[in-house]
Design brief:
Elements (H helix, E strand, L loop, with lengths): L32 H52 L10 H5 L5 H20 L3 E14 L3 E13 L8 E14 L2 E14 L4
Antiparallel strand pairs: 1-2, 2-3, 3-4
Length: 199
């Protein structure tokens, strides 16, 4: 038996084989004018959208900071007025010390003088006073200065008047200044006074 050689293997029909396709090369063409305009507009829109988002976020944060400051002033004014005008015969002498943390400037000294002057007669008459803040509104506000309107309901009782309550609705305009991150009352002006005490 003769060995099989390479020439003995059928090579197939050469007419049926398809030639490999040659790749078609296209010459480079620069981007058209319209495409450049579209790309430029898209880039501008992206930058504008980023700037708008940044401005909106900055305004949002600024508004939130302002609201926080107004709330801080309103809370301080409410706590201060409640403390300044709520007392009993037993704790009236210490009232200026309790109120000191809310007061600043000349007003702190004026308030102390006023309380010192009424301690003796009020203790003798056994006067108790309770003040409730009904509302507070910010009139103006800046970085270190603010004005607020505070509306109160004040009730005083004394054995001298058979403990018949003295009812007064009072409102004050407060001037506050920020010192060391705290708001202090530097001026207090009465605005309205309505006495509803039974006669």
């Amino acid at each position: 038996r003769e060995p099989v050689t390479e020439t003995d293997v059928p090579a197939g029909d050469s007419d049926d084989a398809e030639p490999a396709e040659e790749p078609v090369l296209v010459p480079h063409r620069p981007a058209g004018k319209a495409l450049k305009i579209v790309a430029a507009v898209a880039a501008l829109l992206f930058v504008a959208a980023g700037a708008f988002a940044g401005a909106t976020a900055q305004q949002y944060l600024s508004d939130r900071a302002l609201v926080h400051t107004k709330l801080d002033v309103a809370r301080t004014a409410t706590s201060a007025i409640t403390t300044l005008w709520t007392y009993t015969p037993d704790d009236m002498e210490s009232l200026p010390d309790r109120a000191q943390k809310y007061l600043g400037g000349d007003f702190a000294a004026q308030y102390r003088q006023y309380i010192d002057a009424i301690v003796a007669p009020n203790k003798q008459a056994q006067v108790s006073n309770s003040t409730q803040v009904l509302g507070a509104a910010i009139e103006s506000i800046g970085p270190d200065r603010a004005t607020a309107l505070v509306y109160t309901n004040s009730v005083a009782t004394s054995p001298v008047t058979k403990n018949i309550p003295s009812l007064r609705y009072l409102s004050y305009r407060l001037t506050l200044e920020r010192r060391d991150s705290k708001w202090l009352i530097t001026e207090m002006t009465p605005v309205t006074s309505l006495d509803l005490t039974p006669r």
